[in-house]
Amino acid sequence: MKKTRTTFSNEVVISFVLRWGVVTAAVIIFLGVVLMLIKHNSLSTGWNLKDLLFYDPATPPHRFFSLDIGSILSQAAALHPFAIIELGLLFLIAIPVLRVGTSIFLFALERDKLYVAITTIVLAILLVSLLKIR
Amino acid sequence: MINIHMTIGAPTFFLIVLFLISVAAGFLGSLLGLGGGMIVIPALTLLFHVDIHYAFGASIVSVIATSCGAAAAYVKEKITNIRIAMFLEVATTVGAITGATLLAVVRTSALFIIFGIVLLLSFAPVVRRRQEAPIKGTLSKQNGLSRRLKLEGKYYDEYLDREVPYEASKTPVAFGMMYIAGIISGLLGVGSGPFKVLSMDIAMRLPIKVSTTTSNFMIGVTAAASAGIYFARGYINPFVAAPVALGVLVGATLGARWLPRAKNILIRRIFAIVLAIVALQMILRGLGINI
To answer: Which residues of A touch B65 (CB under 8 A)?
Structure first.
């Protein structure tokens, strides 16, 4: 009986993390878009499709949007629209990671060592990918 | 194809049109069980001439959003099997990293062709979607590995009005198939839901409701594994990804509300034909033939 109760609350906790994570990320992205429409003159790129959709893998470091977390955070603090959108997108990418992290904790509460181990492996694999973002 | 790129001048107009197309893609994706990404990528590349890498980047973000949104609802209903999902995610995440790494070396023309082929394969189950058949003829024999990993469970089936127990079989086969599903997800920026469902359906022989909800639950984690690499490489262009992510999320939410009323097989077939044409067009584009 005790076991079924913990399983139930696990599902409720995970559901909560997922739902509110998505809503928060969507709100941040939306605010970034609104800001972009208001002050597109201040963007580091021209407000035309040729510049905004420019892609050239041969010159990767010179894109009109930042790729490292340090610059994104400082630009977002200065209300740079692209940086705020990127912050929302990063938050969105982080939700599944957060969900996996929560699961480790919940399996530990259930004293399920095998699944604590399996879930930790999944988290480690995710971090291998995410740590590529500088 | 009409060259919208030339006619749409202002970025603001582009954003609005892209948002609306993404709403439609999210809506159709959730009705067909394909995910918005598979529909939005051809729209971005064929209609708007957006680079395919940006299309994949925008798609992967929308995949995470819809998967998390939908999973939140299913998990609460306790149909999703969190243990099976977690175990198989070891395979899908490693696959996703493999796929995302391959993306840097595969030529753009080849990406179009591979995407077209995967799209053709994905909607095969859409055309002849089975009626609600929650249990297989015989419960398959659970193997030793599956038992040790506790890959089993039960769920309440509304159609049968009783609890249905199930257990997974052929675990290593399913694990291998999931690795391939992960590669597809990482290489093409899609959720590869149909392939995940397939491996839980034909290898593990789980009830279809458990397969589909567990697959949906896994898609977000698989996509996050490649999204990190996509972001670091600059495939996620905020100007493209923002309207797509928001649009697909809105569309998928509307689609989920409407889903119980959309049982019409004719509508599915019509969309399948449209998607087949789109898939062929992607392949032709990859071969350098523009219609």
So the answer is: 22, 25-26, 92
Alpha carbon of A93: minimum distance to chain B alpha carbons (Å): 5
Q: Classify residue B156 by its DSSP letter.
A: E
Q: Check: CB of residue A89 under 8 Å from CB of residue B245.
A: yes
* Annotated domain spans of chain B: 10-286
pLDDT tens profile B18-60:
999 999 999 888 877 777 788 899 999 999 899 999 999 999 9
The H or E element that residue B234 is part of is none
For A89, which of B61, B234, B249 is closest by C-beta distance?
A: B61
Q: Is A58 on the interface with B (CB under 8 A)?
A: no
ipTM, 2 dp: 0.89
- CB nearest B87 (choices: A53, A95, A118): A118
Separation of alpha carbons B28 and B18, rounded Å: 15
Counts for chain B of helices (H) and strands (E), in that order: 13, 2
Query: B242 and A60: CB-CB below 8 Å?
Result: no
Cα B271 to the center of its chain, rounded Å: 16
Q: Residue B28: which H helix or E strand, with range?
A: helix B11-32
Is the Cβ of B95 closer than 8 Å to some Cβ of chain A? no
Q: Give the Cα separation of B285 and B291 in Å (integer).
A: 8
User: What is the pTM (predicted TM-score) of this model?
Assistant: 0.90
Contact A99 B69 (CB under 8 A): no
Burial of A13 (0-12, 13-18, 19+ CB in 10 A): middle
